[in-house]
Amino acid sequence: MRKASKMGFGRRLRELRESLDITQAELADAASMDQSLLSKYEREDVSPSWLQIERLLEALGQSPCALFPDECAAHLGDDQGFFTIRFFSGRPTEPSGMD
Q1: Helix, strand, coil percentages for the chain (3-state, nearest 5)
Q2: pLDDT tens digits, residue range 56-81?
Q3: Residues contacting residue 73 through CB under 8 Å, at least 6 positions apart
Q4: pTM reported for the whole predicted model
């Protein structure tokens, strides 16, 4: 059951895409994914991987805070750069002893 109180990822993605006047087909092509998969993300039938989210953000020309405003505000304030590095760089932000 979906929570009615908060806007889900799919709805935020759709509203962002529409606000930028981009069709599903255009975004899917720019993000190297099938339009049918993007449609499933927007309907919240399936959840995207972090790699897919990164591709979508890059194709939209947006920072992670565009799709995760509550998380950015709650944990990072205005520091969008840290969020981007932490979750999308593929490199740990702290030494972990793993290569």
Answers
A1: 60, 0, 40
A2: 999 999 988 888 887 777 665 555 55
A3: none
A4: 0.69
